[in-house]
């Protein structure tokens, strides 16, 4: 008799029964239902049932053979983080404004991982930006372990048009539909309900009567009535409230404004360089020449340029 034993997955439990699955074939079945052994296949030419089949017990394999041992992991995410290198290859840049420039808040930001302070020149003059750095020095006094570790990034305004400021800081002016309103190119002038300054001298040369000027993401709509050398006369189209330093857009009109203009040069030479800025974020970069023009004003200092494309 030819005997063949086929070992399948075993079970820890002892066989619960012996059953006949087919003539001449006996199967031992474990309690879990797994076949442990098959035996007594008839020899060639032998008749099934002419001789008593002999049981062959196949060595059982432990279920553990087919299980992967449980891996041990740290009990918390903090421990997982602790096994990594503390040195960061990437900077965490935080824009600092009125809600975050207090020394105590700066300390919390540094503890949370901030490595770069972003000073956005579209909002705030040199005096305000310098105040942020003065507060950073106060923050170092509260947390000396961070002294000298923070980097400074100055973000340029770039070739965009914004409105100026009012006599009352961060105030809003209510405008009525149909009233006259002026946009003037003298940025030193403080605005009111009848006029506001803008950041470019090119706008009066670029617009014509009948064209619309959208301010503050389109919430303030003006219609040009006349363009003079240094101002644009308009009619207010809708009832609205105008805030300070809001964006200005003229649909369908390209205003020729350089990426590195007089404002950017002044910000770089009179603020970024004296304050040892680490980065200049150059807004609305359009060519390599823009980056080269920016570098001309570094005074030999090693300042990195971030091209905002």
UniProtKB/TrEMBL annotation:
It is an enzyme of class 2 (transferase). The chain crosses the membrane at residues 25-46. The keyword Protease does not apply. It comes from the Eukaryota. One of its GO terms (molecular function) is pyruvate kinase activity. It catalyses: pyruvate + ATP = phosphoenolpyruvate + ADP + H(+). Its EC number is 2.7.1.40. PANTHER family: PYRUVATE KINASE (PTHR11817). This is Pyruvate kinase. It comes from Symbiodinium necroappetens. The gene is PYK.
